[in-house]
Amino acid sequence: MYSTWSSPNPVLYGSGSSKSVGEQLKRLGCKKVMVVCDKGVKAAGIVDKVLGYITSAGIETVVYDGALSDSPDYTINEAGALAAREKVDGVVGVGGGSSIDTAKGVDVLLSNPPPINQYFARPGFPPAGDLSNLKPLVVIPTTAGTGSEVTPGGACADTANNTKENFVCPVSLGIVDPELTLGLSPEGTSTTAFDALCHAVEAVVSNQPNEFSRLFGMKAISLIGENLITAVRDGGNLKAREALHLAATMASMSILGPYCNIPHDIGAVICMMFHIPHGVAVSACLPEIFKFYAPAVPQEMKDIARALGGTVADDATPEEIGRAAADAVFRLMKESRLPRLTRFVKSKSELLTAVPKIMETQIFFFSPRPVTAEDITSILDKSYDLQLQMEQQSAQPV
Ligand SMILES: [Fe+2]
Predict the structure, then answer these.
(1) N or C of the chain: less Cβ packing under 10 Å?
(2) Ligand 1 centroid to 193 CA: how many Å?
(3) Separation of alpha carbons 119 and 122, rounded Å
(4) pLDDT score for 1
């Protein structure tokens, strides 16, 4: 029995590391780069700082600040056309997952004809497009969630078909500077951290685990369990921010090989159907998924429950382990004020309309146990009830 773990690209980690971006680009041979971001990161002043670090190294810049959530194909094609017109020789993605995915798409289009849609990855097929002449791509995440600074590909919304697709694009260098996350809102902090938590959990319980994925995944889960609530309550706490950013990178490293399963398989569909932020979509059903996992991977779920602060007896049954893990993650969802599913999906019947699409488009290849339409219906059904319960228990306005 063996499985694959792909070691990622170089990563600079540490507070203040983004200040070296200009020097790093120079080392990569860049003379004029496109900085890709969204309007929120630009307004927060982070992009201007990064632009200063780049220009002070003598490198010209062009800014594309039109990145949108889920990286719609038309934004990547628009940014790619601008990059080609401006003849840039490198790309820098600054922001959350969508900005970074947009930057990755631009990098593909700098050495391949548009549109990005012709490079969507298809299972069982080699990567589309010529990846041998890609320009340098530097990724600077400003959220601690997606971990796309170490993933050799990006995601893109196919707007004609309302699906989320992937394409291949390796990163030249990731720069993980926790200082850049100090201004992240409580909601942004919890939403992105839960995305990272899902990556790590899915790696640990995967049916194709390995020691690397388990090591990085369990460490990421512990770091999130120990630091998320502090970071949400005290956004300026650099120690908590450092822990979460490290967790996000490690969580993404953990999933390189085992890949995602049930949370992301459900999330990939409902985020597009109901316009739910990625981190909320993938984690909204976690408590019920934990109960579903437990009979197949009791030891892993016991470790996860404990890493999230839950109490589990050594001789607990799989059912008890599942309940303890579900309780622990439900508490974390509530206390970190993770946005509720009920904000985006108005009724349970509306949510259940996603079941056929989930079964049609997702194969649950890495799930630790087989998944049927009845299983997904049950998970969504009970998860909606739990989200309503969370809404009723919380004094927080929706
Ligand atoms: Fe994710």
Answers:
(1) N
(2) 10
(3) 9
(4) 55
Q: How far apart are CA 271 and CA 163, in angstroms?
A: 10
Measured CA angle at 187 (ends 263, 364), to 5 deg: 5
**Percent of the chain residues topping a pLDDT of 90:** 89
Residue 171 has a pLDDT of 96
What are 253-311's pLDDT values in tens digits?
Answer: 999 888 899 999 999 999 999 999 999 999 999 999 999 999 999 999 999 999 999 99
Phi and psi torsions of 153, nearest 5°: -170, 170
For residue 242, the Cα-to-chain-centroid distance in whole angstroms is 17
Q: What is the pLDDT of residue 209?
A: 84
Distance separating alpha carbons of residues 208 and 2, to the nearest angstrom: 8
CA of 219 to the centre of ligand 1 (A): 17
C-alpha of residue 353 to centroid of ligand 1, in Å: 22
Q: Ligand 1 centroid to 195 CA: how many Å?
A: 5
Please report the domains of the chain, with CATH numbers, ordered by start residue. Answer: 11-181 (3.40.50.1970), 190-390 (1.20.1090.10)
E strand spans, the chain = 11-13, 32-36, 60-64, 90-95, 137-141, 153-158, 163-168, 173-176
For residue 55, the CA-to-ligand 1 centroid distance in Å is: 32
Going from the Cα of 255 to the center of ligand 1, the distance in angstroms, rounded, reads: 10
Residue 156 carries which side chain, given as an amino acid letter?
C
Residues 6+ apart with CB under 8 A from 247: 144, 193, 196, 200, 219, 220, 221, 223, 224, 227
CA of 251 to the centre of ligand 1 (A): 10
Consecutive sets of 10 residues in the chain, 398 residues long: mean pLDDT of each? Answer: 73 95 98 98 96 98 96 98 98 96 98 95 77 95 96 94 91 97 96 98 94 95 98 98 97 90 96 95 98 98 98 97 98 96 96 96 91 98 94 62
CA angle 134, 137, 111 (to 5 degrees): 25
Q: Which residue has the tokens 């998860």?
A: 383
Please list the helix, strand and coil fractions of the chain in percent, rounded to the nearest 5, in that order: 55, 10, 35
